[in-house]
User: Fold these one by one.
Assistant:
Number 1:
Amino acid sequence: MSGFLRLDLSHVPTSTTPAPSALLVASTGEETQSDVLVEPVAVKEESNTLEEKETGKPIEKRPNAAQLTVNAAGDVEYEDPLGLGQLKKPNVSQRQLKVEHPKANKKKLKKFYTRQNELIDQFLASEDEERLGVLDMELNGPKIKFAIYASSGVNFCLFVIQMYAAISTGSLSLFATAADAFMDLVSSIVMLVTSYLARRASVYKYPVGRTRIETIGIILFCALMTTVAVQLIIESGRALGGSHRQGEPLKLVPIICVAIAIASKFSLMVYCFFLRRYPACHVFFIDHRNDIVVNTFGLIMSIVGTRLVWWLDPFGAICIGLLILFSWVSTAFDQVWLLVGKGAPREFISKVIYLSITHDEQIRKVDTCRAYHAGEKYYVEVDVVMDEDAPLKVTHDVSQTLQRKIEGLGEVERAFVHVDYDHDHDPHEEHKPVHDKRKPKRPLKEVMKNAKKRISAILPGGSPQV
């Protein structure tokens, strides 16, 4: 059993009511599922009386699919209308899997069931994701602020110490690490400025906001960082190819200061590791981890280069410059794809479909679901099928509440819900085509046969001549 499990609701057959086990489909691809047709588990063919239809009386909504409840033990539980909870594997230890599947690959099987349990938990908690996120931020907000402020302070102190040590000794390795620390500070300033501009957007000039300016800011900063890295590599190459130059040996006081700064970064890395589920803390965790490796390597190369082997200092600077270059170039490419409109992974598509089919009993089917990047977050488009005789007030209220619920997901910036009354049409006809229709590939034998006919028609005598 290769790959890992994805809860893919888009593969549910439409002719029969799907069983909960039919909602779990193993897949290893990362393609976005855009055209789907999903029916709810239980659909009432006629949920309104004639009087309700004529008067347009609002239909009473069933309880939320994942409404919060608290059991006697104080643990949070969620309602499970599709019965996905019964598909969770309670024991995923290799010993238990060996008993149940003696011939299977235990590691892959454990990964399979672990991923399945995680996806089920994500599905059941998705209804209250926005509210739980707010409560979680209220609870852990001070911890996150401390991690951000402490990380910024340590980065500033480390830059000052490394700059002093680099200027006093002329070590290129320390100049490289100082440049890296300086760019960390600049990146924080860039993100603060872009976040401020994104929040202060004019509702008339930018009707849907300008959060994509953050992505553009990251790309511009990547360009600046790659320029600095290239210049550092060039200067180190000149020093490496030039005559021997012995710089001032690195003294004990700067070494101790840099070591203390590295130790502080290690402490903050451990602190941010336990808060890494928050985006800001996750970014600082990655930053501290990389800085510990880079600064330790640069300090060692500087000490050895200024005291023992002179060429190790520019060589270490070149290595650090290459690391910075490749790291920021890859980051720039990732951000470019977000602006282009990269599709969301299938796990996220399935979660949106789950939210849609469990939102209200008036939703008969989910016809189409698309999600794509418009910057850091997703734009989501969902087409649902409802009864053609349902009052306009009902269809409006159901679609609007579903739209707002989808926008409550942390990864979503905007959502658009379209209501239809049938699913027997081509969803691609609703918008102008944005992709060229690809012709089906013909067999090689047919291609060669047609080529022979064309050659026979051109050459004299009616047959190919060699």
Number 2:
Amino acid sequence: MRANDAFISSTFEAVLQSSYEELVRSSWNGISKEMQVAYSKSPVKYLLMEERNVYCGVHNVFVLYERGSDEKLCKKRVVHTDGGRAWLAHCEGTPENRTIRFVNIASRFEDKEPENSLATDVLTHLSRLRLVGHAGSVRALWLDTEYQLLLSGSYDTSIRLWDLRDRDQIPNLSNGTTNSSNKCVRIYRGHTASVLCIWLDGTTKWQELQPSKRVNKCDQRPPADSLTGQMDRFTLRFASGGADNNCFVWRLDSRDHLWLMQHEVHVTAVLLRGSLCASGDRSGKIRLWQLSGFKPTLQKTMDGHSDSVSALRMNEAHLVSASRDGFVRIWSLTDDLTSCLGQLPHP
């Protein structure tokens, strides 16, 4: 037995000889004060664990799209996967090439699940599909294969909703749908500068607007075989952030935004979950909003990143943020605490 292994073994045996109360006290004192405050009012379950660095090497790398020999290196490429590891939407993100394409990535994963195969079979036409319509470079994409739709944001300040269903399988499709020839069914306008990020909330379904409440004639209730008609009289909400320092929340079935939240600099990441919206900006600040009434309420501002926020994720108790500063930070949602609970460096 090596000396290091002997030290680890003796240390673990010493821990086992300690009383449960001593272990709890030591564990509680070992975490940060921010975590102690965050979890002081929550039931905490303690587990005896041994931590070892069993693997220290590069992570597995999956090549989802391989550049051809005649293709130039594209540093501004925008991508988004469907979450089910079946399809990827991508665009070069340049003013010269504004075409949105799709790649089947299910075959890249050895542990492909049955539902991924089903999604692949239903959407096989996506590999041939090309979406064109934006007047400026595409800066943000959101692909949802469950509802077979795509949201795209652009330098032209607009957001487009695309119907990805195979039209050969949809009889009696209304030709009155806006721009139906290239699958764009709705255009959202509100931003005054580039749209940089989009988040579609699939966790909460909302009742569709009644025809009498629709402001524009183009927003009359769509036919039953249209994109929003397939949702059984419900709709979804999505959030967007832009270089105009604004964050908007929208409904899929209306061109008019529901709420507007403002930052001092570009909004680079958004997240929407039910009545909560989180928005991160270029300065590294993150703001948490409660969406209710005519005006959203700012619950708190979390400041810890030293560069722009690039991604946000949330569950019932925590918010996780990633930034160009190379750190992933964890925040509490259950109280007024604005300090970071912990951070993970990323090379």
